[in-house]
């Protein structure tokens, strides 16, 4: 049994905290958002996620899971700290690392014993892991070590608990082999392949995975435009392609394009990572452009079907808000 601090109890952090507690560890979730911690202490989950309320309740009741706003409290006996804070996009598309850097600083200041720091947030390669490791080293008390392990998360909103207990793989990137092994041991009960690699490769694996899935979606949407012009059925085409195991049936559903909290930001961030290194990725820009065009197309079609003036932002902004963030809102004509 390990003592684990989970920093940031949003989608990823709360799911990680509850699942690690279910595996028998003692987990303390810490968040700077006091309102969120108050809700969690009252047994309420701040967002809708199947299976999570029951999992949180069971583990709180068993004394394996608690929540606090205090890093000191969370770090008191921690052998491991999982950083699960947000990395939202900046206007230039780069991932904003400020939450991660502040979390690392607070973890190091509050650490009372050596521990492994696990970076679960999606963070770009190209110096960020090195910067986080330096922040840790600069703020730890003398005699305390905190090796950094990059361990990106692949869960989907809506099946977060299932995905956490049934991962296709875990990716563990570290400079310190012993720290990597300690993280791998934590996942051993899940019986999935574990890739042990360096931090930059682990970071890029996460972006490449999301960009590949986004590419499949943009690809099928591109084919749907051609299909429409030749009178072919895109659903039949996707099914026919999907039977080929080398292609796979998943993420071939054409529609409004990809949205959600990760694909749009992560494809943009990967383009930005490449550009920062002096490489313009025409390919990734095409994936983003096709996606944006798909929403425009849908809005235009709706306009044609309803008669242009009928399409008003208020007419279906309510419908869109029932879905996760999409890029479509920006294509709706204003009333
Ligand atoms: N949501 C997903 O489906 C998903 C899946 C895989 C990876 N990710 C990645 O995981 C990371 C977290 O995503 P999320 O969706 O859980 O974000 P989120 O916004 O739901 O949660 C982040 C939490 O961190 C807290 N926080 C911010 N700064 C803090 C600090 N200094 N100390 C303590 N708490 C702090 C916030 O208050 C918030 O509750 C991101 O990098 C994201 O890209 C998300
Ligand atoms: O065939 C498809 C499949 C998905 N989508 C859209 O793609 C977006 C993303 O869907 P999904 O992957 O189911 O949800 P997310 O919760 O955004 O999860 C993605 O983003 C997470 C954050 O990085 C990753 O951890 C997950 O592995 C990755 O699937 C949504 O807008 C879907 O409507 C399509 O348009 N066509």
UniProtKB/TrEMBL annotation:
E.C. number: 1.1.1.22
Give all residue intervals belonging to the UDP-glucose/GDP-mannose dehydrogenase dimerisation domain.
201-292
Q: Which GO terms describe its biological process?
A: polysaccharide biosynthetic process; UDP-glucuronate biosynthetic process
Residues forming the UDP-glucose/GDP-mannose dehydrogenase N-terminal domain are: 3-184
Gene3D superfamilies cross-referenced by the UniProt entry: Cytochrome c1, transmembrane anchor, C-terminal (1.20.5.100), NAD(P)-binding Rossmann-like Domain (3.40.50.720)
TM region(s), chain numbering: none
Record pathway: Nucleotide-sugar biosynthesis; UDP-alpha-D-glucuronate biosynthesis; UDP-alpha-D-glucuronate from UDP-alpha-D-glucose: step 1/1
Query: What InterPro entries does the entry give?
Result: 6-PGluconate_DH-like_C_sf, NAD(P)-bd_dom_sf, UDP-Glc/GDP-Man, UDP-Glc/GDP-Man_DH_dimer, UDP-Glc/GDP-Man_DH_N, UDPglc_DH_bac
The record's similarity note reads: Belongs to the UDP-glucose/GDP-mannose dehydrogenase family.
The name under which this protein is listed is UDP-glucose 6-dehydrogenase
Origin species, per record, is Acidithiobacillus ferridurans
The taxonomy runs:
Bacteria, Pseudomonadati, Pseudomonadota, Acidithiobacillia, Acidithiobacillales
């Amino acid at each position: 049994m390990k003592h684990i601090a989970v920093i940031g109890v949003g989608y990823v952090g709360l799911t990680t905290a509850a699942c690690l507690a279910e595996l028998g560890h003692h987990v303390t979730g810490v968040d700077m958002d006091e309102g969120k911690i108050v809700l969690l202490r009252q047994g309420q989950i701040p967002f809708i996620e199947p299976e999570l309320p029951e999992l949180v309740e069971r583990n709180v009741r068993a004394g394996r899971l608690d929540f606090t706003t205090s890093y000191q409290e969370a770090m008191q006996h921690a052998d491991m700290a999982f950083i699960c804070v947000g990395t939202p996009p900046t206007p230039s598309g780069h991932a904003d690392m400020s939450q991660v850097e502040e979390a690392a600083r607070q973890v190091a200041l509050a650490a009372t014993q050596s521990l492994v720091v696990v970076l679960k947030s999606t963070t770009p390669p190209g110096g960020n892991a090195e910067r986080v490791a330096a922040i840790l080293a600069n703020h730890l008390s003398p005699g305390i070590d905190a090796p950094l392990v990059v361990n990106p998360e692949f869960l989907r909103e809506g099946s977060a608990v299932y995905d956490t207990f049934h991962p296709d793989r875990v990716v563990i990137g570290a400079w310190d082999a012993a720290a990597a092994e300690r993280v791998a041991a934590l996942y051993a009960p899940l019986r999935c392949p574990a890739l042990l690699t360096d931090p930059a490769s682990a970071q890029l694996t996460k972006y490449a995975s999301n960009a590949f899935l986004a590419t499949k979606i943009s690809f099928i949407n591109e084919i749907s435009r051609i299909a429409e012009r030749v009178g072919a059925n895109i659903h039949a085409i996707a099914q026919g392609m999907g039977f080929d195991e080398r292609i796979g049936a998943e993420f071939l559903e054409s529609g409004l394009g990809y949205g959600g909290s990760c694909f749009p930001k992560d494809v943009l961030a990967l383009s930005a990572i490449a550009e920062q290194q002096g490489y313009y990725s025409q390919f990734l820009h095409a994936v983003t452009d096709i996606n944006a065009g798909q929403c425009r197309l849908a809005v235009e079609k709706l306009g044609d079907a309803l008669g242009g003036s009928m399409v008003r932002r208020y007419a279906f902004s309510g419908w869109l808000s029932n879905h996760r963030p999409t890029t479509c809102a920006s294509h709706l004509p204003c009333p």
